[in-house]
Amino acid sequence: MKIEVADTVELNNGWVCQVDRMSGNDPDHINTLGYGPFVINGLRYHQNGRFGEAGFSHSTSVKRIPQKASSDKLWREMTDEEKDKVPDDVLNDPANPLRIPWNEWSRAAKGALLLADNEGKAIQWYDFDFDGAWVDDKDFIEDLDVYDDLPYRIKPESVRETVTLMIDDGSMGGPRAIGTIDLIDGEPDRASIKMEKI
Hints:
- By secondary structure, the chain is of the alpha+beta class.
- It has three domains: 1-64, no CATH class; 69-154, no CATH class; 158-198, no CATH class.
- It has four helices and eleven strands.
- It has helices at 80-84, 88-91, 107-118, 140-144; strands at 8-10, 16-18, 21-22, 38-40, 43-45, 123-127, 133-136, 152-154, 160-167, 176-184, 187-195.
- A three-stranded antiparallel β-sheet has the order 3-4-5, with no helix packed on it. Strands 7-6-8 form a three-stranded antiparallel β-sheet, with helices on one face. The chain has a three-stranded antiparallel β-sheet with strand order 9-10-11, with no helix packed on it.
- The relative contact order is 0.13.
């Protein structure tokens, strides 16, 4: 997978964003802080969708749909022939990466989602029309009768990560760490900032 300027991508935290621009003209460029040239929401990414030096599973890295799905298309964009080639593990994935509507789910996938709802796990539906994002569904069971044509998924667990804050003051030593901040699902937790005196 390679991202390009103007691509619409989904991050691991569920946000759907557009690749705003590329800094410079080398898609493989890595700056001194380890960030790539592609800008999404003010953050810099490598062409493979990785955020900075974080791994592919980082909450703000671009979601990687399994290659086994054989298509970058969403379910509603696929032909019947393409749908038939999607492997069972992708069809039954509780993250619903292809955004398969409820009325086309397998019995196993429906059972897993109903069980998760019964266990108190949060359920989300995908809003194609307005925000292009996953939305919490407080009335999942009641909504199924009316909205069975929507994609649903189990809401991913929140991910808390600590990120090192760096500064490059132009000294010969290059960038240095000046503190840390925690990210919860990619959003900064301002109360967690720890910094040294500069």
